[in-house]
Amino acid sequence: ETGVTQTPRHLVMGMTNKKSLKCEQHLGHNAMYWYKQSAKKPLELMFVYSLEERVENNSVPSRFSPECPNSSHLFLHLHTLQPEDSALYLCASSQDFGQGNEQFFGPGTRLTVL
Amino acid sequence: GDSVTQMEGPVTLSEEAFLTINCTYTATGYPSLFWYVQYPGEGLQLLLKATKADDKGSNKGFEATYRKETTSFHLEKGSVQVSDSAVYFCALGQGGKLIFGQGTELSVKP
């Protein structure tokens, strides 16, 4: 595997389910990101981890819970979601957390909440 | 706060036409500027970037120049192809974060 991978690619869940999204980067980067992409809206940064420590939390509801066990893996744990949480969830990584650093994106997980 | 504004799409062009997608930004300090492209069913890919005023980023025939005086970073290509059909995102990098515009969908017809 190369670059940034995400699993699953598609997920359908009910509002009472608990699920997790997984992201893995094979680039040796030190920073990882979760974004939410909704139709007709700019990408929304949700969480940032640098060297496995959370450095950004953009007022995201607590029903989204990130986890970064090491610099290569990032999870997004989901529970009691709402239909408006349906979106494409993108993971990205960059060499470091700093200005000018290019971010490399995964293909995303298309989430549908029923 | 910092923000990015892109021209609304969709933009529909014939093959070999000239492309311009406008992007303007509002930022404190001296951000880096990026264009990302998203093909159907895929994540975002970096198309080009510029890190300081008057820099020109270029890749695959696309160009954009960092214009501090007009706070702009317009994307141009002299002759588009059907394979350029995608959504294009302008972004600024500030304090380790990327702030994106809403995206502009480009459709190129043969």
Rg of chain A, alpha carbons:
13 Å
Indicate the structural class of chain A: mainly beta
What form of chain B results from the Cα inertia axes? globular
Assembly category? heterodimer
Q: Mind describing the biggest β-sheet of chain B?
A: 6 strands, mixed
- Alpha-beta content class of chain B: mainly beta
Total DSSP E strands of chain B: 12
Low-confidence runs of chain A (pLDDT<50, min 5 residues)?
none
Helix content of chain B: under 10%
| pLDDT averaged residue by residue of chain A | 91
Order of helices and strands of chain B: EEEEEEEEEEEE
Strand content of chain A: over 45%
% residues in beta strands of chain B:
over 45%
- What is the CA-based Rg of chain B, rounded? 13 Å
User: How many DSSP H or I helices of chain A?
Assistant: 0
Measured between the Cα atoms of the first and last residue of chain B, the distance is 41 Å
> How many strands, which pairing sense, and closed or not: the largest β-sheet of chain A?
7 strands, mixed
Helical content of chain A stands at under 10%
Short description:
The complex is a heterodimer of chains A (114) and B (110). Chain A has 114 residues and is mostly beta strands.
Describe the structure.
- The complex is a heterodimer of chains A (114) and B (110).
- With 114 residues, chain A is mainly β.
- Helices cover 0% and strands 56% of the residues of chain A.
- In chain A, strands 2, 4, 5, 6, 9, 10 and 11 form a 7-stranded mixed sheet that branches. In chain A, strands 1-3-8-7 form a 4-stranded antiparallel sheet, with no helix packed on it.
- Chain A is globular and about 35 Å long.
- The N and C termini of chain A lie far apart (32 Å).
- Chain B has 110 residues and is mainly β.
- Helix content of chain B is 0%, strand content 54%.
- Chain B is built from no helices and 12 strands.
- Chain B has strands spanning 3-6, 11-14, 19-21, 23-26, 32-38, 44-50, 56-59, 62-65, 75-77, 86-94, 97-100, 104-109.
- In chain B, the strands form 3 sheets. In chain B, strands 2, 5, 6, 10, 11 and 12 form a 6-stranded mixed sheet that branches. In chain B, strands 3-9-8-7 form a 4-stranded antiparallel sheet, with no helix packed on it.
- Classes of the chains: A mainly beta (114), B mainly beta (110).
- Chain A binds chain B through residues 4, 6, 31, 40-43, 45, 48, 50, 55-56, 90, 92, 97-108, and chain B through 4, 31-32, 34, 36, 41-46, 49, 51, 89, 93-103.
